[in-house]
Fold:
Amino acid sequence: MAEAVALRQANPAGHWLDTMAAWGLAILWILPLAYAVWTAFHPAEFSAKFSLTAPLTLENFARAWEAAPFARYFLNTTLLVSLILGSQLLLCTLAAYAFVRYEFRGKNVVFALVLVQLMIMPDVLLVENYKTMSKLGLIDTLLGIGLPYFASAFAIFLLRQTFKGIPKELVEAATMEGASALQILWRVYVPLAKPVYVAFALVSVSYHWNNFLWPLVVTNSVNSRPLTVGLQVFASADQGIDWSIITAATLLTAAPLLLAFLLFQRQFVQSFMRAGIK
Amino acid sequence: MNAQKQAHAWLLLLPALTLLVAFTHYPAIATLIDSFMSTPKPNRASVFVGFDNYAAMVDDPIFWQALRNNLWFALATIPLSVGLALAMALWVNGKLAGRGFLRMAYFTPTVLPMIAVANIWLFFYTPSYGLLEQIGNLFGLPSQNWLGDKATALGAITVVAIWKEAGFFMIFYLAALQGINPSLREAAAIEGASRWFFFRRVLWPLLMPTTIFVLVNAVINAFRMVDHVVVMTRGGPDNATTLLLYHLYEVGFKFWDQGYAAAVTVVLLAALATVALVQFFVLDRKAHY
Amino acid sequence: MKHSFATCAAAVALALGASAVQAQSTEVPFYFPVAVGGPITKIIDQFATDFNKENPSIKVSPIYAGSYQDTIVKALTANKAGTPPVASVLLSTDTFTLIDEDAIVPIDNFVKTPEDKAWLGGFYKAFLLNGQIGGKTWGVPFQRSTVVLYWNKELFKEAGLDPNKAPQTWAEMTSMAQKLTRKDASGKVTQYGVQIPSSGFPYWLFQGLTTQNDVILANEAGTQTKFDDPKVIEALQYWVDLSKKHGVHPSGIVEWGTTPKDFMEKKVAMIWTTTGNLTNIRTNAKFDFGVAMLPAGKKRGSPTGGGNFFIFKKATPAQQEAAFKFAKWLTQPARAAQWGIDTGYVAVSPAAWDTPALKKYAAEFAPAAVARDQLQYAVAELSTHDNQRVTKAFNDGLQAALTGSKTAEAAMKDAQKEAERLLRTYK
Structure:
C-alpha cells in the first residue's frame, strides 16, 4: 500500500490521467451489457429509444423463457463444462507429469504430437469426428460433446512448463520420505501449480461455455443441448431481430456466470497471491 | 530407465494420448488425405487427384481475399487485445478508484456468449438509429453504414473481437502482476525510477511468460473467431469480412466440397503450426523464468 | 399369495407386451429449423405428440436443428456419417443439392391412392415449383413465404400521398419514395423512401425485381443461368439507381435483420421483406401500415421462399412410409391453416385458406391474404445444381454492384462467368 501511495504522490497528474483513461475504457467496455440491461427491461419500442420515462417490464423475460427450456440448457451446460474441466485436469496432469518426471523412448515425438493439437480445432474436423461419435453411439450426449476436448494439449503444455519449474529440492525431499510417484505428484506438484490450474480452468470454462458449432452438430434434443445452441433460436434469419427478447435471453443465461464472477473474483485474485513460489 | 518406469510413463500418458489421436490426429490425417482426393459424390467415388484441390484454391480469388482479411484481422486484434489487456491489468492492479467495477467491466465480454453479443453490436452499428449513429448525431458526424460498406466492415468486426478478448487476457496479466514481489516496486520508487523505466526494465521482462501465453491464445483466436462473422455479416459485403475459417466452413458445409475444404484446412493448419512453432522454440528461449 | 403372484405376473406380461409394441414402433427422427420468432419448437413438439398419439405404431421425434443452414449441415452430416435422418424440413432451394448427394427420395414413390394424388395436387402451384425436378416431386411444401411490400400509412399521409394506395409500378415506387425521403438541416437523410435488404441473400429480393422485369434467372433443370441477360442488368441498375441516382434508398448493403425494425422506427417508409414478418410488424408497429404486392415492372412478380418437407433415402421403407404419413398429416388444411396463423407463413393450399379459421383471420386482417393473392404471379426461387456456390457468386455480384465497387453490368457478367464454370459438369 505504501508504495502505491508513494507512486501516487510522486506523480499525481499521471495518476489522474490513468484513472480517467481506465474509467473511460471501462464505460466503453460495459456499454453492450448496459444496453442489454436497458433493452431487456423495457418494451420493444424502446430498444432504440433511450427516453428516461420509458416503462419497465418483465415481459421480455417471460417471452424468452417461453421460447426455450433454459433451466435444462443451464443444467446441461454446467454439467458439460464441469465434465470437460474435470477430465482435462485429471488426464492432462497425468500426461504432463509423465513428460516431466520420466525419460522414455519416443518422448519428444509424443510431445510434438501433443503440440499438434494446439492448432487443430475440432470444429475443422467436424465431419470425421461426427462419424466417430456416431460409431461410439454418443450422439446427443454430454460425453459426446466433451470427449474430443478431454485431452487438452494446452493444459499439457502449460502444466509441463509449470512442473518443470518446481524446485528439485522439494521433490527430493518427498522422495526421501518414501513417497511414491503418484504421491509426489499429489503432494508436491499439484499444490504448487494451483495458479496455473486456475488460469487454465478459466480458459476451459469460458471456451466451452461459449462453444457453439460442434455442440450444434452433435446434439439433437433437449437432453444434451447447451445454452449457446438454445440461444440460437433467437438469432432466426427469416424474421427481423428483436433486441428486447435477445437481450432478455442473454441476461437470463449470462447472469449466473456474471454473478459467479462477481462473487469469486476475489477468490481468483487471492489464490494467485497465495501462490508464493513462482 | 528401467522397464517398469517406462511402463509407468506410458500408463500416465495413455488416456490423454488415446483421445488426442482419436479426435485430432486421426481426423487430421484423414483430412490431409482428403485434400489429395476429389470430393466424393454418390455416383462418383473419391479419386486421387494430386494437387488439383490446391490448384483450385490458388485460383480462387475468395481464398486470397479470406487470407488477406484474416491477416489484417490478426494484425489488428493481436497487439491491440494484448496491449489493452496489459493496460487493463496495470490499471486494475494499481489501486485506482473503483477497481472492482473496472475489473468487472473489463471481464464482462468474456462471460457473454458471442451469439447474443454479436446481435447487440449489430444494434450499435445499425445506420440511422443505432447507438453509434445516435452518438454521432450528438456531435454532428455524418452517417456511416459500418457493416454495409466494404471499407469499414472488416474494421467493425475487428473491434468486436478486440472487445471480446482483451478482458480475458487481462486476468492472466493480473495474476502475473499479483505474483510480482511488491518490494521491487518500492525499491524502484525509492530510487526515483520513473514508471515507464520500471515498466520497461522490470515489469515487462517479468511478464514475458504471461505475454507468450497470451500471445499464443491471441494468435489461435485470430484464426478461430468466426462466430461474429456468421451473425453480423455472413462474410459480406462481397467477401469483405470473410475470414479463413469462415471460408472453410462455407466450402465444407455449404458447398459440400470436401476435397477443396480439406486443402484449405491444411493451409490453415500449416499457417498456425508455423506461428506456434516460432513462438515455442524461439520466444520460449527468451522467456525469463 | 397365489392371487397376488398372478396379478404380478399379469402386470409384468402387460408391461413387457406394451414395451414390445413400443419396440415395434417406427422411429422417425424429424429435423426442423426455426426461422421465425415465436414458440416454434413448442408447436412442432405438440404436432409430434398429437401425431404419435393418433398413430401409436409411429414415433416422430422432432429434432430442433437451428437455422436453415444449420439444419442442412446437420442432416447431411448425419447422412454421410451413416445415421441419416428420416425426415427433415429444409430450404426448397436445397432440392438439387439433396438430389446430387443422393440423400432423398421422390414423394411420388408414396403417392398411390387417388386421395394421395388429390392431396399432392392440392398445393399452390407456385410452392410446388422448386420441388419439381426431372418430372418428379421431391419435397412437400410446408413453411413457405413470398416477398411483399410493407408501407407506413402515417408517413404517406405526411408526405401528401394517399395512405391507402401502395405503389403499383416501379415508376410509382420511385416517385412516391422521392416524396417520402426526408433530410434534416445538414442534408443528412432522416427518413428513406424505400429499402430493399441486401445482406446475406440479396438474390431473393432481387428475384422480385427480375421477375417483374420479365426474366427468369435459371432453367428448370438447374443447369443454366441468365445472370448477364440485359433485363437482369436493367433490374439491378434500377435497384442501384434508387440509392445512387434518386437518393431514396440507403447506400451500401442494407441489413436484412434490422429492416423490420428500421420500418418500425420510421426510418424508412416502404420496405420489401418476407411475409413471415407480418406478425412481428403487426405486434410492434405503432402506426397504421399496409401490405401490398410488390410493384409491377413489366409485370407483377415475386419469388417464393421457405422450406419443404423431405424424406430421406437411407431410411427403411417403413420409416419412409411413416414420414410420408406425417407429411400428409402436417399439411391437412386445418392444421396448415393454424400453422400459417401461428407463424406468419403462407398456408400452402387453397383448401387451408378455405377453412373457417383462416377465412376469419383473412377477413379481420386483410394484409394476411396479400401474400396468397400474389401467388399467381410467383415464380420458383432461384435454384441450380451446386446451388450454394452459384447463388454465392450471384450474391457477391449483387453486393459488389450495390456497394459501387463494380458496375451492374460488370458484376452480372462476372457472376454469370462463375456460374457457367460451376455448372459445366452438370450439363
User: Anything to note?
Assistant: Residues 13-22 of chain C have pLDDT under 50 and may be disordered. Chain C touches chain A through 46 residues (CB under 8 Å). The two ends of chain C are 79 Å apart (CA to CA).
